[in-house]
Amino acid sequence: MSDDPKELLIEHAASAFRERDTWGRILPSPAWRDLSPEDRDAAFERQLESRVIERALHPAGLSATARAVLERLKAQ
Amino acid sequence: MTDDGGAERLDAAFRLARSGDRAAFAEWMGMLEIPLRRSLRRWARAVDVEVVVQETYLRMWLIACDPDRVLEGNSASLKFAFRVSRNVALEEMRRCRNVRFVDLETLDNYPEGRVEIDPPDPALSHAIRTCLAKLPAKQQAAIWARVREGRQADRQLAEGLRMKLNTFLQNIVRARRLLRDCLEKRGVRLAEILS
Asked: For B104-146, what is each residue's pLDDT tens digit?
C-alpha cells in the first residue's frame, strides 16, 4: 500500500491521543509539528471530522477527546 | 448567535458538574465540543487545536469544582469556555513560538463565530454505521479501533491489530475516503456538517 506521506501525517495528527511532559502538560502531536501551515488547516478539518464521527457513534455522544479528558479526571 | 434551548441545557449540565458530577461534565463536554472546535479554526496553523480543546476542558473542570467561581448570565459556561480556549491557544502559540503563523491583531478582531449546540443526530449515526459496515475488513478494523479507543496512541492501536503504524494509518485514510463517498451517496455531506 502507498499513500501520500503527508496524508498519513495529517491522519496521525487527527488522533485524540496526546503525550504529556513530566509536569503533566499536554504536548502537540509530533506529526502536527511536521506539517506545513496549509497541511495544518487540513489536520484541523480531519480532527473535526474525526470528533464528529466518534461523537455520532458513541452511546453518550462523547468523542475520543472527551473520553481522554474523563480518563485524566478519574486518574487525578 | 446562540441556540437558546441548547445553551440552557449546556448551562444546566455545567451547574450539575459543579457538584462534582463527572457524568454531567461529560454531557457538557459532548454538547460543547463541535462549536468550540469550530471557533478555533482560525488558530489551526499556529497551535494543535486538539491540545487546546483538552486543556480547555481540564481548566473548565477546575472552575466547575471551585466553589468561589460563579458563572452568571445566559450561556455563561459556553462564553467562559470560549474565553478560556482563546487564552490557552495564545499560551500555546507563545510556548511553541508559532506567532509567525498568525496576526494577533486580526485574531483579536475576529468575530466569535457560531455557537449553536449540536445535539447527537441518530440519522447520522445510522448512516455512518451502515457505511462503515461496507468497508474492507482491515480498513473497518483500523477505523473502528480509532473510533472506539482513539484516546490511545496509534502505535498501540496498530499493534493490537498486528499492523505496522503506517499500514494502520493508510487503512484509516482509505476508510475515510470510502466513508465520505458512501455518506455522500446517502445524501450526507460531511463537509456541510463540519462547516
From this structure: 555 555 555 445 666 678 889 999 999 999 999 999 999 999 9
Mean pLDDT value across residues A11-38: 95
Rounded to whole angstroms, the Cα distance separating B169 from A29 reads 15
The answer to whether residues A47 and A14 touch, using CB atoms and an 8 Å cutoff, is: yes
Looking at this predicted complex, what is its ipTM? 0.96
Q: How far is B94 from chain A (nearest CA, A)?
A: 13
* Cell representation of residue A44: 484541523
Of B128, B129, B150, nearest to A15 by CB-CB distance is: B150
Q: What is the pLDDT of residues A33-59, one digit of tens each?
A: 999 999 999 999 999 999 999 999 999
Tell me the chain A residues in contact with residue B55 when contact means C-beta distances shorter than 8 Å.
26
- A-chain CB neighbours of B186 within 8 Å are none
**CB of B48 within 8 A of CB of A32?**
yes
Residue pLDDT, tens place only, B43-54:
999 999 999 999
Residues B126, A57: contact at Cβ < 8 Å?
no
The nearest CA of chain B is from the CA of A22 a distance in Å of 16
